[in-house]
């Protein structure tokens, strides 16, 4: 898919008060902003026009915009985030996203956009601490009428499905060794990475370029075999808050 637009949100000064399972210390706010701007510059450099939303200090995780919506060429689903503290974020994305897509709000269950991976016309959705079976069923009821199918994938380790697997094309996945043998992914070429390199599994393909976290040379070598340009970005401050590259934008 060629992306022409993306929605991002500037991190708030309160971003260090967000939800995290990491034990890497508090993020430095100035460094967080520097890394955010580098990310935005990378997207712009790849031909993506950005809509930058203002920070929401009352919602310290709100710059992880991926979790509150799932965008397709035809519509956008407004999710029901699994963490109650994040439920109030959805209303703040609706105006910006509604300018580009018809909005389909979920009415039941729990589902984070970080658990949703779209490959072709098939959604793979992680069953995690943030996304439950009711949420997957509610999501499927919305998208199936547009010809999309849904496959649930239990995730034993990792906050979200896209913490451990991401599509680098219609036939290639970057996936942790623990999930590489899952039958749902049997028809894909799989580039398996070790648990030590798991964070770099959250690599993002944008318009023929792979944007990948700094500090993972083994992963850089592995995905370099695809022959696509690599754009390496430092995301150390977002990692402290369980965030990665896909989390920071809604691309379409």
Describe it for me?
The protein is an alpha/beta fold. The protein has one domain (5-251): L-arginine/glycine Amidinotransferase, Chain A (5-stranded Propeller), CATH 3.75.10. Helix content is 19%, strand content 25%. The protein is built from 6 helices and 15 strands. It has helices at 29-45, 94-98, 133-143, 177-180, 217-224, 236-239, and strands at 5-9, 49-53, 69-71, 75-78, 102-105, 116-119, 122-127, 149-154, 165-167, 172-176, 189-193, 204-206, 209-213, 230-233, 250-251. The strands form 5 sheets. The protein has a 3-stranded mixed β-sheet, covered by helices on one side. It has a 3-stranded mixed β-sheet with strand order 3-4-5. Strands 6-7-8 form a 3-stranded mixed β-sheet, covered by helices on one side. Strand 3 (69-71) and strand 4 (75-78) form a beta hairpin. The protein is globular, with a radius of gyration of 17 Å. The mean pLDDT is 97.
């Amino acid at each position: 898919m060629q992306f022409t637009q993306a929605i991002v949100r500037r991190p708030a000064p309160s971003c260090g008060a967000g939800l995290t399972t990491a034990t890497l210390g508090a993020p430095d706010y100035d460094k967080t902003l520097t890394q955010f701007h580098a990310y935005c510059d990378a997207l712009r450099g790849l031909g993506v026009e950005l809509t930058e939303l203002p920070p929401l200090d009352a919602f310290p995780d709100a710059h992880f915009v991926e979790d509150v919506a799932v965008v397709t060429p035809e519509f956008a689903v407004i999710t029901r985030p699994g963490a109650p503290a994040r439920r109030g974020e959805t209303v703040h994305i609706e105006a910006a996203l509604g300018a580009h897509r018809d909005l389909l709000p979920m009415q039941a269950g729990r589902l984070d956009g970080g658990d949703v991976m779209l490959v072709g016309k098939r959604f793979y959705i992680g069953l995690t601490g943030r996304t439950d079976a009711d949420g997957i069923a509610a999501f499927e009821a919305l998208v199936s009428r547009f010809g999309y199918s849904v496959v649930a994938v239990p995730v034993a380790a990792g906050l979200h499905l896209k913490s451990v697997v991401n599509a680098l094309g219609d036939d290639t996945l970057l996936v942790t060794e623990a999930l590489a043998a899952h039958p749902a992914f049997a028809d894909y070429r799989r580039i398996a990475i070790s648990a030590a390199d798991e964070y770099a599994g959250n690599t993002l393909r944008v318009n023929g370029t792979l944007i990948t976290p700094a500090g993972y040379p083994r992963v850089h070598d592995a995905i370099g075999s695809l022959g696509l340009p690599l754009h390496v970005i430092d995301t150390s401050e977002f990692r402290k808050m369980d965030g990665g590259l896909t989390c920071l934008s809604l691309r379409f």
